[in-house]
């Protein structure tokens, strides 16, 4: 047991809340002291400010019952407690969110249990492979935890970040013969560590345990990676090319002739080939693909397996928690080893703190290792590839490349949500490729439909429901198939420097995008019912379930706001966008910033507009092009 985070009084309040939220069912035990212990264990690894905030929430929920009942929550009868929490679930936006901050934590803690997983026919962990012989390129990896003395290096190019952009660019430049140094804040993990344990893997590879959040008219969770591989190590491997209409729009709206279909698509094709992208195998798609196909066929919709960068995938359903077989060719498997084989150097557990300047020119990076040492890397070219949420923070901290005032602006995120179709038989949703199947033909409407399976603890936290209503949902988990939808957003957000240098993200869903969310909900519900679902579960306030097709009309006629949806997002883009007009963009067609010579940005932030598809292939293709252009420039 970890040291106490909560006081005895706070544990008492939490215990009362937990047993009300999870009262137990035929297969799933009632929440109890073990649940409270697990919550406290989770809190032990979050910042102290969040720990104190959680404690304050407990007291807020404890005493909010005084006006009506003249007693705190812990002194109420069980039926009264149920009514209080159910009223919050269906009440105001503020009450709903306050309760969810606690209930989601409690649900994850309780369902993160081998016994619960077993009851729901899901494996708690996967088999860890035998330790392999260390690859020769590992000798070029420098662990910042072991570097305690100041170092100064010189190279051709220093790259900050190992995600889709930084890794692909580093590979291209190292293979062109340049001396490349790569800096990564996270650690290098291997498949021997990927046991599929959701909480352990979130601690290992997710920034802030997956809790990065945007604020606006609806909070949106935006999980991003913090490891060698960036977010590619925790994505589902979906590998879609950029739509031709989008590339044509870049030419028309931003003057980017260099990224028109005829120019960029050759790099896209090379990227798809290098990653061995192919459709998911039918045997690993399972009931999700079979039932979605049945529903789509009944309604006349196109559908099929999604292309993924995972040759040899065996369907262990842990893509978002580190592939246990290395089948998924994330950048830690594909690009970084290739760059190191071409004699690049990688520093892990090393935080880039500032861009080194001489006059107005970037000449390298100043970083700090986890061992406490200052690392100075002087370079002929400096590449920032920290991603759309973190690259702007580096620039804003020093006031760099922002003459246009566009740094941090123009954020697109593809707001997304998942729905569940409940059937009257057991499904194999926990043992299939999480995102292996798609519904096609809706991109013109700004809709992207893809499978979205999650393990029981993550699944449990996805719903606001509490008490016996929640238990009914939990009991149905192994009779569900889940599917997700994202939209090509027209809204734009903003990234600021927040407390302690963390990203402060603002984003509000506009009416146009709300209409897309509603249309997607309706389409997916009809597909589930056409496939034979007996019930459909929604992430929408007032509509936790649709019982039959007639309920869809009730949903269509309801007055809903963005805040009535529970949204997530996985594709932040656009915060340092590319363009030929330095007044409207941050970088030019060669990825060099308009304002600071020698400073390049090669990540999703340069993408000028919402893509409407999973962006990793587009980012990698653009990064490969950028790396080759930079190599040519430095070789002249």
Name of the CATH homologous superfamily of the largest domain: FAD/NAD(P)-binding domain
Tell me the β content.
Answer: 15-25%
Task: From the alpha carbons, calculate the radius of gyration and give it in angstroms.
Answer: 24 Å
Label the CATH architecture of the largest domain: 3-Layer(bba) Sandwich
Shape: globular
* Terminal residue distance: 61 Å
Total separate domains: 3
Mean pLDDT: 95
Question: What is the overall number of helices?
Answer: 19
CATH class of the largest domain: Alpha Beta
Structural commentary:
By secondary structure, the protein is an alpha/beta fold. It folds into three domains: 8-112, no CATH class; 150-188 and 238-274 and 323-408 and 575-635, FAD/NAD(P)-binding domain; 278-308 and 416-488 and 510-564, 2-Layer Sandwich (Cholesterol Oxidase, domain 2), CATH 3.30.410. Strands 1, 2, 3, 9, 10, 11, 12 and 22 form an eight-stranded mixed sheet that branches. A seven-stranded antiparallel sheet has the order 7-14-15-16-13-19-20, covered by helices on one side. β4 and β5 form a beta hairpin.
Topology:
Elements: H1 8-21, H2 33-43, H3 48-63, H4 66-69, H5 78-89, H6 93-111, H7 114-119, E1 141-143, E2 151-160, H8 164-175, E3 180-183, H9 198-205, E4 213-215, E5 220-221, H10 244-254, H11 261-274, E6 278-279, H12 286-299, E7 302-305, E8 307-308, H13 335-341, E9 345-348, E10 350-358, E11 361-369, E12 374-384, H14 391-398, E13 416-422, E14 437-440, E15 447-451, H15 456-460, H16 467-475, E16 480-487, E17 494-497, E18 503-506, H17 511-530, E19 535-540, E20 543-546, H18 550-557, E21 567-568, E22 599-601, H19 616-635
Parallel strand pairs: 1-9, 2-3, 2-12, 3-9, 4-18, 5-21, 12-22
Antiparallel strand pairs: 4-5, 6-8, 7-14, 10-11, 11-12, 13-16, 13-19, 14-15, 15-16, 17-18, 19-20
Helix pairs in contact: 2-6, 3-6, 8-13, 8-19, 11-19, 12-17
């Amino acid at each position: 047991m970890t040291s106490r985070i909560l006081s005895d009084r706070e544990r008492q309040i939490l215990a009362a809340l937990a047993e009300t939220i999870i009262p137990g069912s035929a297969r799933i035990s009632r929440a109890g002291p073990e649940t409270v212990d697990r919550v406290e264990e989770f809190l032990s690894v979050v910042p102290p400010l969040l720990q104190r905030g959680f404690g304050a929430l407990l007291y807020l929920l404890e005493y909010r019952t005084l006006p009506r009942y003249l007693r705190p929550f812990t002194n109420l009868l069980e039926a009264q407690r149920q009514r209080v929490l159910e009223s919050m679930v269906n009440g105001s936006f503020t009450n709903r969110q306050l309760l969810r901050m606690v209930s989601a934590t409690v649900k994850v803690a309780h369902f993160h249990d081998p016994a619960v997983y077993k009851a729901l026919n899901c494996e708690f962990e996967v088999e860890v492979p035998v330790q392999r012989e260390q690859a020769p390129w590992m000798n070029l990896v420098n662990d910042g935890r072991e570097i305690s003395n100041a170092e100064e290096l010189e190279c051709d190019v220093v790259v900050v970040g190992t995600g889709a952009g930084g890794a692909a660019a580093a590979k291209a430049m190292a293979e062109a013969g340049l001396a490349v140094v790569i800096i990564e804040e996270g650690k290098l993990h291997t498949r021997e560590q990927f046991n599929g344990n959701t909480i352990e893997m979130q601690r290992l590879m997710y920034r802030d345990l997956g809790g990065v959040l945007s604020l606006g008219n609806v909070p949106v969770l935006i999980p991003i990676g913090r490891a060698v591989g960036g977010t590619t190590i925790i994505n589902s491997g979906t590998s879609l090319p950029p739509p031709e209409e989008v590339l044509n729009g870049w030419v028309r709206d931003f003057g980017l002739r260099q990224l028109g279909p005829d120019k960029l698509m050759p790099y896209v094709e090379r990227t798809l080939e290098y990653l061995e992208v192919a459709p998911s195998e039918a045997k690993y798609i399972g009931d999700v693909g079979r039932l979605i196909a049945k529903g789509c066929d009944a309604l006349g919709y196109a559908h099929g397996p999604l292309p993924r960068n995972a040759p040899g995938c065996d369907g262990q359903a842990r893509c978002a928690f580190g592939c246990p077989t290395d089948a998924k060719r994330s950048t830690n498997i594909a690009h970084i080893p290739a760059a190191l084989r071409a004699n690049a150097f990688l520093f892990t557990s090393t935080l880039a703190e500032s861009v080194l300047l001489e006059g107005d020119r970037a000449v390298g990076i100043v970083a700090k290792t986890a061992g406490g040492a200052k690392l100075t890397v002087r370079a002929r070219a400096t590449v920032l590839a920290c991603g759309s949420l973190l690259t702007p923070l580096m620039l804003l901290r020093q006031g760099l490349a922002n003459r246009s005032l566009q740094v941090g602006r123009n954020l697109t995120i593809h707001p997304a949500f998942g729905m569940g179709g409940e059937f009257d038989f057991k499904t194999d949703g926990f043992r299939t490729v999480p995102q292996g199947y798609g519904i096609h033909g809706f991109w013109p409407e700004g809709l992207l439909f893809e499978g979205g399976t999650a393990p029981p603890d993550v699944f449990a936290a996805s719903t606001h429901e509490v008490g016996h209503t929640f238990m009914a949902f939990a009991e149905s988990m192994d009779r569900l198939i889940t599917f997700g939808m994202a939209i090509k957003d027209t809204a734009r957000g903003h990234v600021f420097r927040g407390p302690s240098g963390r990203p402060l993200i603002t984003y509000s869903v506009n009416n146009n995008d709300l209409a897309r969310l509603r249309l997607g909900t309706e389409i997916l519900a009809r597909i589930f019912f056409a496939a034979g679902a007996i019930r459909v579960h929604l992430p929408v306030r007032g509509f936790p379930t649709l019982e039959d097709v007639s309920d869809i009309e009730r949903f269509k006629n309801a007055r809903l706001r963005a805040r009535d949806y529970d949204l997530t997002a996985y594709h932040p883009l656009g915060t340092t966008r590319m363009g030929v007009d330095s007044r409207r963009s941050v970088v030019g067609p060669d990825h060099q910033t308009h304002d600071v010579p020698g400073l390049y940005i090669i990540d999703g932030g340069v993408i000028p507009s919402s893509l409407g598809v999973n962006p990793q292939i587009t980012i990698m293709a653009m990064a490969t092009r950028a790396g080759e252009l930079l190599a040519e420039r430095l070789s002249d």
